[in-house]
Protein-glutamate methylesterase/protein-glutamine glutaminase (Brevundimonas faecalis), 346 residues
Amino acid sequence: MSTPVRVLVVDDSATMRSLISAVLRRDPDISVVGTAADPLEARALIKELNPDVITLDVEMPNMNGLEFLEKIMRLRPMPVVMVSTLTQAGTDVTLAALEVGAVDAVAKPAPGVSPQEAFADLGEKVKIAARSRVRPLETREARALDSGYRADPDHILAIGSSTGGVEALLNILSAFPADCPATVVTQHMPASFTRSFAARLDKISAATVTEATDGAPLAPGRVYIAPGGEHHLEVSKGRCRLVAADPVNGHRPSVDVLFHSVASQARPMTGVILTGMGKDGAKGLLAMRQAGARTLGQDEATCVVYGMPRAAFELGAVERQLPLPRIAPAILDLCAASPRAPKPAI
């Protein structure tokens, strides 16, 4: 990068502030310009130092990290990387933060794990955050579900996403009716987060959303989220398969692995690639399109990071690029049992 990314580290623990700062300072493309022990101190330093990125602790005195993040995203939107504990409470708050607008999250060291290992990708996440598009926080309005919709029972919908994908998937799945197409999703996310994320999606969607298990049957009304960690999610003979294998494109689960497996199925299919850094999913989406799938990509203007959709588009894998609010309706049209009747003109 031409100039170092200026970072403000916010954490109530002096030890953690020191550890995070030390890890970040090892990267010549990052400059830690200040540290703060609580949101009140951080607010003053944001005005004084004008950092490019904030690393923000989830649990702090005076005002917790989520409350402070909401104020940031409403009043002065800027890239934020959350630093979370691996407790259930920490995971839930971090997912809420990603929904509010945090770019990414990293977990604090678990017992027996060194800070260098726990924060191994923190510097890269900070640099990605510095290049991301951050928008003011908007209240998500509940959307009317299409009660008359019926999905093609043979159709498979595969979705891939990464940085910014929490917000994008919430937007899409909240619009799905109960009889949505059989859906498989790979979102780059740590193992400790995917089950809670699936539960969060299940609450806001009329469809049934769960973390994928080996052998789970694909059926309309079911959405499966790839578990983070040790397996890739694949599709075979109408069922989910969890495959233990090396990371692909640096990721496990990998979007490319999911898309390639769907491309091999002799069924109608749709592939969608959403916001994210890198190129994971581009070749797999191309394989799907070459196998006859309809394919969609999120457009640059609505992506937090226009990396994965760009790579897929430039490869010729994307049939249509759409802004995020138009993706769910387009998916439902493509996966319907029969063409949907046009809405009457108003």
Q: What stands out?
A: DSSP finds twelve helices and 14 strands in the chain. The chain has two domains: 5-130, 156-335.
